[in-house]
Amino acid sequence: MAVTPRSLRVLKQRLISPNLKRITFVGDDLADFSINSASGYVKIFFDANSASSSTLALETNQKTVKRSFTIRAFRENECELDIDFVLHDDYGPASIWSNAVTVGDVVSIVGPGPTKLVDQSADWFAFFGDLSALPAIAVNLEKIHSSSVGFAFLQVPSIESCIDLEAPSGVEICWVVQPNPKEAVNELLKSLRGLTWMKGNPYIWVAGEFELMRGARKFLKSNKKQLAGSYISSYWKFGATQEGHRKAKFLDAAISKVQIN
Length: 261
Ligand SMILES: Cc1cc2nc3c(=O)[nH]c(=O)nc-3n(C[C@H](O)[C@H](O)[C@H](O)COP(=O)(O)OP(=O)(O)OC[C@H]3O[C@@H](n4cnc5c(N)ncnc54)[C@H](O)[C@@H]3O)c2cc1C
Description:
Oligomer: single chain
Bound molecules: flavin-adenine dinucleotide
Helix content: 25-40%
CATH topology of the largest domain: Rossmann fold
């Protein structure tokens, strides 16, 4: 990931659903930004003191904190970058900032990091994700071949949060409407366990809350499924700031390594 900070200005913003806000950033610092970066991520710097979360103060004594966000789209000619922010109620620096943002506000970012795209040689695809993963899944659905087949299980907190997606007609979009994050994890895992296995090798793509990542990984490992590939990641952790989430991920990876060895 490129680590030299880029300074960007907010060009426009719009709600694409009650819980998802698209913010378009612009700036000359995007002149050398990677053209094919959509689905990859950037880290955005926020003021740590803006958070209402007291745990954040305990986890970091820094003035700024970094948060990861998916590149929903990048238009190189205009030097414009779209990011979809989840407006979650459990306020952290990023959600507070994205709620209150105004045109002209300036942020620093680093990145982009690697893309999170499926391997297109798979026979079929299955996506599982909550709102935080919807931007990356939306990019994947736009990029896979129009003849692709499979499923996308997408959790949203309310029926109003279901949005139009550009996807191949052979990929069934299944909205999982569930406002409770813990229940949402259970429902997405239930969809994974009950998945109709199609012919050939699938690419399984899962991202969202920490327990979704753990449950999906456990299921795929214990069932020894034949896969063309997989991407299983956690994007946030219920009750933890991103600093706490990072520590939990690190610990979890260390434990699974010990279990394998
Ligand atoms: C590779 C990657 C890509 C990501 N892409 C996106 C993206 O495109 N859009 C996006 O919105 N997020 C995305 N995320 C997730 C985002 O980085 C986290 O949600 C981040 O914690 C938000 O920061 P915050 O300052 O709002 O909250 P934090 O300070 O990190 O946490 C404060 C509180 O908010 C809760 N919280 C954090 N995130 C959520 C959530 N999504 N829903 C409900 N409660 C939450 C925490 O559990 C905690 O209690 C991505 C993460 C990764 C690793």
